[in-house]
Specification:
CATH architecture of chain A: 3-Layer(aba) Sandwich
Distance between the termini of chain A: 37 Å
Strand order of the largest sheet of chain B: 1-2
Number of helices of chain B: 11
Largest sheet of chain A: 6 strands, mixed
Order of helices and strands of chain B: HHHHEEHHHHHHH
Strand content of chain B: under 5%
Structural class of chain A: alpha/beta
Number of domains of chain A: 1
Shape of chain B: globular
Largest sheet of chain B: 2 strands, antiparallel
Radius of gyration of chain B: 19 Å
Number of strands of chain B: 2
Order of helices and strands of chain A: EEEHEEHEHHHHEHEHEEH
Helix content of chain B: over 70%
Strand order of the largest sheet of chain A: 6-7-8-3-9-10
Radius of gyration of chain A: 17 Å
Oligomer: heterodimer
Shape of chain A: globular
Strand content of chain A: 15-25%
CATH superfamily of chain A: P-loop containing nucleotide triphosphate hydrolases
């Protein structure tokens, strides 16, 4: 079973299609990195996958089931976690409440591994999440998303503002999860991070796919060529 | 202490707590859902008419409470599903829609009960002596009940898991949806709770005021002033807002009369809109 696949999806805001006829899939235990310049429709693609925007054409399949017009809150039940690029955490809640929200009994024991990896989170538990730095918010969002233990995880620019040493730890964590069979779709600007985790690349420009393939087929130079045009 | 002063203090307390009950429902729907419910006063009016119906039937007054919760909750549920839900994030449209709803509800009450003033007999008639002052028992009970309800609601909102989820939903609805929270259901629940609070407030004040179809207007205007002064989205705001508006209104009424009191409240509200448009305790 393929955790997430999308077939010729188009969609956008108003009458404009930001994303046009994009297809792709990610297998269990693999990472698909979506790269491209700012404003080419990477985040829009994720919003189509998650159900925040309706697909004008094409079909999204999550966990082997067609998502159709399902709302985001229902798609989660198909087995997908999402860490958005903007407003990634609940600013009004404390860091610990942000994490407790997802745990039935409200205990944070399940986050031990994340606290060991990112001690800064444990230090800030009592703090309001809105007072965290941009990078710390991303770490909190990443932690929340991965701790949900869903078969598919979608990350939108997870390393924005995060310092390199923590970026490496994120990659470690993702690679550990890959071994456990989790599928990832990651939108990423940081190619050094992408190279640490990617199995496949989808390079976008103007809402369309300009290059798709495995990391064996696509080198950094091929990607950079499309990023700098 | 001078019994007259005690009476006045109790009057102020009474004014503030009942106003807080009404403003709270409005603050919940406005602050959490972004829905400025202009028909909020009409839910208060419906609650008062529930008390009237129970009173006329000769049934015990407390039966008005479940009746009002049923009626206002039921109407609130229908209104949210049919009228409000398609208009979320369209504040002006909601304003017009709920204004229309308020007209409809008022006219329905008029059709059913006429325009005349009705009175509901006071339960717990008689007075209790407190610090040397005689004060109506019913009002004393109301003060206690209002404080208890408001306190319980705040405690629940601040500490329970359901409260945590609602706070999350209010602050960042898109993220809440990504986490699988039933945002639509929570929004419906929130609106129904706001409607029920208004109905409950209507039952409470029914024995103390003339019950008529236009009863809600006065309350809803004062409740808006509370939100103007207190600011949106915080518990402290509602408490501070009612303290300022309800307190000022009661004090000025006692000293100068109700017209002057209304004038003062208006001036204060305008000053706030002008000088501190986000209120005393706005956050974010």
């Amino acid at each position: 079973m393929i955790p997430i696949s999308f077939n010729t999806v188009s969609g956008g805001y108003g009458s404009l299609n930001v994303v046009q006829d994009l297809s792709g899939e990610v297998e269990a235990g693999k990472v698909l990195c979506v790269v491209g310049r700012n404003g080419v429709g990477k985040s829009t693609l994720l919003k189509l996958l998650l159900g925040y925007l309706p697909c004008r054409s094409g079909e999204v399949t999550i966990g082997g089931r067609k998502a159709g017009s399902m709302a985001p809150e229902a798609r989660r039940g198909l087995g997908i976690s999402y860490c958005p690029q903007e407003r990634p955490v609940f600013d009004d809640l404390s860091v610990s409440d942000n994490l407790a929200l997802m745990v039935k009994d409200g205990r944070l024991d399940g986050y031990r591994r994340f606290f060991d990896l990112f001690p800064v989170l444990e230090k800030r538990l009592a703090q309001r999440a809105g007072t965290l730095s941009g990078g710390e918010k991303k770490l909190l969002s990443f932690t929340r998303g991965l701790a949900e233990h869903q078969p598919a995880v979608v990350l939108d620019e997870p390393t924005e503002g995060v310092q390199w040493e923590n970026i490496q730890r994120m990659a470690e964590m993702i690679n550990g999860r890959k071994a456990g069979g989790t599928a990832f779709i990651v939108v990423e600007q940081n190619l050094s991070f992408a190279e640490l985790i990617a199995d496949h690349y989808l390079v976008m420009d103007h809402g369309r796919c300009v290059l798709i393939g495995s990391c064996a087929e696509i080198g950094r130079a091929d990607i950079v060529k499309h990023l700098t045009v | 202490m001078d019994p007259l002063i005690v009476t006045q203090i109790l009057n102020i307390l009474f004014g503030v707590t009942t106003l807080a009950m009404i403003a709270l429902g409005l603050a919940i729907t406005f602050g959490m859902l972004g829905v400025l419910n202009l028909a909020h006063g009409e839910f208060v009016m419906m609650g008062a008419f529930c008390a009237l119906v129970v009173d006329r039937a000769g049934a015990p007054f407390v039966l008005a409470v479940p009746l009002a919760l049923l009626v206002c909750g039921g109407v609130g549920l229908m209104v949210e599903m049919l009228l409000i839900r398609p208009l979320y994030r369209r504040p002006f449209d909601t304003l017009v829609a709920t204004w229309g709803l308020s007209l409809l509800l008022r006219k329905l009450a008029e059709a059913g009960f006429g325009l005349g003033f009705n009175s509901v007999s006071v339960p717990l008639a008689g007075t209790a002596t407190l610090f040397g002052a005689d004060y109506p028992t019913y009002r004393l009970v109301l003060i206690v009940v209002c404080v208890a309800i408001i306190g319980a609601l705040f405690a629940w909102y601040g500490t329970s898991r359901a409260g945590l989820k609602i706070r999350a939903m209010v602050g960042n609805p898109d993220l809440a949806r990504a986490l699988g929270m039933p945002v639509k259901r929570l929004a419906t629940t929130t609106f129904v709770i706001g409607s029920c609070l208004a109905g409950l407030a209507g039952v409470m004040v029914a024995p103390l005021v003339p019950v008529h179809p236009y009863l809600g207007l006065d309350y809803v205007i004062k409740s808006f002033f509370v939100l103007v002064v207190g600011g949106l989205g915080s518990v402290l705001g509602v408490v501070a807002g009612t303290g300022v508006i309800g307190g000022l209104d009661s004090v000025m009424s006692a000293v100068f009369g109700s017209t002057q009191a209304y004038f003062t409240v208006l001036v204060v509200a305008i000053l706030f809109l002008w000088l501190k448009p986000r209120g005393l305790f706005s956050h974010g």
